[in-house]
Amino acid sequence: MDIQRELLGELNSICEEHDLKYVLGPSGTKLLYVTGNLPDNLSSMDVYMAADDFLKFEKIVRTMDDRFVEYFLNNMDQRNFLHRYGNSKTTYINLRHLRKYNKNGIFINIGIISKPQNSRFKKHISGFLEGFWAAKNKCSNSGRVGIKHFFGSFCGCIAKIFGENTIANFIYNYRKNNFWVKSWDDISKYKYVLVNGKKVHVDIFKDLEENRLGNLKIITPKDKSRYLTDIYGENFENTEMKPPVKGEWIIEDTEIPYSDVIEALESEGYMQEYYENLDSQLRILAGGGKYRKVINKSWNIYLMARQWYDLKGIYGQKKEYFEKLLSNKDYLLLYNELEPFLDFNKKWSDRKVPYISIEKIDGVEKIIDNIEFRNEINKIEENRF
Question: What is the model's pLDDT at position 48?
Fold first, then answer.
């Protein structure tokens, strides 16, 4: 997608300017190697960095407008160690992971190159810490009983005693120090490193090259063939190319920020009702496979919120003009101008979702409920039908 390509270009520019290193992930490199291009319909894009380079990159992005980096230390609700660089002026929602992320813009993934790990003890410690955190995050779920819930409550109490931030930093630093490559220069200390869980020989990272796709510059290992062979095997060129595409669980919008949609949904406590309804439907999904109803309902809620927000913007720009038409009793022209607002209530009140009334926009109710204008509306609509 164009947004992801734009983010990839920005990441490359930041890394060039600040002497940070990265490589394109295996799936993107394979597409580039086989087709010479990166399709616009990809559902995900990955790059890989060393741990210290990522943390430097994250600090730089904090100073940028309309961009975000989301990872474990600034979103402790997620149960894994995903790193995402995204555009906060867009919307990307995975309905199955609705509450796991605080930032819901279109993004690219940033993976951390891992060092070889032969210690089972360290793996067990890491697994225990991640399990502890996952249980802690689940402890607030009401209405659940059983051993898992009591263990989650216990973990939640421990986190409160020692402080969630303290424990989160300990877990993240344990993983960083014991599993991730600290700096790009440290790669040469090992015989191989892990990219996406696969062993890659370290000499592949000694020579990197710049690939140009129009104005876009992307860094990959110079020996792409060997890089891909380590990841996918010797016959990687003969395997079928299946670029990941957007799934039916995904709500995506390149033109409006997710935060604006939330602003609309939060009107009059609507967001809480939305979450409760979605949660209950997801529980039905787990037992009965009625996922299409969940998707359709969530998609309608999203479209409604977006339309409401757009109309709010239009009204803000034309408020004085609308009030002038009302004052001059130019009801026919006012009706034509306000027809999208009137249609909004008719459209969404018929859907089987709770809807945000258009009257929630400050000032609209005063005009629509004007008695003379309301009578004129009735006459106009009677004549039309």
Answer: 97
Residue 185 lies in a domain: no
Considering the domain architecture, whether residues 339 and 379 belong to the same structural domain is answered as yes
Any domain includes 329: yes
The answer to whether residues 9 and 98 belong to one domain is: yes
pLDDT at 25 over 90: yes
The count of other CB atoms within 10 Å of the CB of residue 10 is 16
Instruction: Give the rounded percent of residues in the chain with a pLDDT score beyond 90.
Output: 29
Q: Based on the fold, state whether residues 167 and 305 are members of the same structural domain.
A: no
- Is the domain of 288 the same as that of 151? no
> Long-range contacts made by residues 307-311, C-beta under 8 angstroms, separation at least 24?
307/344, 308/264, 308/344, 308/356, 308/358, 308/360, 308/361, 309/256, 309/260, 309/261, 309/263, 309/264, 310/256, 311/340, 311/341, 311/344, 311/358, 311/361
Is 261:309 a contact under the CB 8 Å cutoff?
yes
Do 161 and 199 share a domain, yes or no?
no
232 with 140, same domain?
A: no
Would the pTM count as exceeding 0.90?
Answer: no
Q: 370: domain range?
A: 256-384
Residue 251 burial by Cβ neighbours in a 10 Å radius (0-12, 13-18, 19+): buried
Tokens 């090992």 -> residue: 190
Residue pLDDT, tens place only, 26-53: 989 998 998 888 876 666 789 999 999 9
**Chain position carrying tokens 């993240």:** 172
